[in-house]
Amino acid sequence: TVYLGDCSFDLARRELRRNDAIVRLTTVEAAMLSTFARNAGVTLSRDELIQQCSIDGGERTVDVQITRLRRKIEPDPREPRYLHTIRGQGYVLHPD
């Protein structure tokens, strides 16, 4: 289980909870969060995310999915605390 403030993500069940309430994730969101959780602290490029999460589309599709995921896990999605953009490289998850 990975903890992100008042959220927790159960890797085995691919289940996100906020204060014990289940937060619905799409298949791609669950795949991305699983990938980030298994690679916490490691910067993943958009290409790596496309391959590991079976994302249809290009790099912009990854950016859209990141935005949607941030809305579900971040206290303030405009000022990400957990899912950071590493300019020119990709994204990295820093759980609690």
Can you describe what's shown?
This protein has 96 residues and is α+β, with helices and mostly antiparallel strands. Helices cover 35% and strands 23% of the residues. The chain has 3 helices and 6 strands, in the order ββββαααββ. The strands form 2 sheets. A 4-stranded antiparallel sheet has the order 1-2-3-4, covered by helices on one side. A two-stranded antiparallel ribbon has the order 5-6. The longest helix has 15 residues, at 59-73. The model has no long low-confidence stretch (mean pLDDT 96).
Q: Which short descriptors sum up this protein?
A:
96 residues; four-stranded antiparallel beta sheet; 3 helices
Low-confidence stretches: none
In whole angstroms, how far apart are the ends?
11 Å
Radius of gyration: 12 Å
Oligomer: single chain
| Percent of sequence in beta strands | 15-25%
Structural class computed from helices and strand pairing: alpha+beta
Task: Sum up the overall morphology in one term.
Answer: globular
- Quick check: average pLDDT? 96
Give a count of the beta strands, DSSP E runs of length 2 or more. 6
